Amino acid sequence: MKSKKLFFIFVIVTANIFVSAIVTSDPCLLPVFSGPGANQFERFYFDKSTKTCKKFIYGGVWGNENNFQTEAECKQRCAFYING
């Protein structure tokens, strides 16, 4: 009986980790991150609280995947969240 409980806990924890990895790997759910750097590239990010693509200045170094070159690209990639 104890081994069944442990197995059940293992399955739940593993599933939770897997789902978390999927959710956080979606660029549309990541926070905006302008990154360091002296450059000033105009880019767009998806703001999940307003469900819109917004302009920001990208420094050119690091950043994350919530960084689109055009507003159209942002809207296309995050259409699922925009259209809900």
UniProtKB/TrEMBL annotation:
Keywords: Disulfide bond, Protease inhibitor, Serine protease inhibitor, Signal. One of its GO terms (molecular function) is serine-type endopeptidase inhibitor activity. Residues 28-78 form the BPTI/Kunitz inhibitor domain. InterPro entries: Kunitz_BPTI, Kunitz_BPTI_sf, Serpin_venom_toxin. Residues 1-21 form the signal peptide. Pfam families: Kunitz_BPTI. It comes from the Eukaryota. Belongs to the venom Kunitz-type family. 03 (sub-Kunitz) subfamily. PANTHER family: EPPIN (PTHR46751), WAP FOUR-DISULFIDE CORE DOMAIN PROTEIN 6A (PTHR46751:SF1). This is BPTI/Kunitz inhibitor domain-containing protein. It comes from Polypedilum vanderplanki.
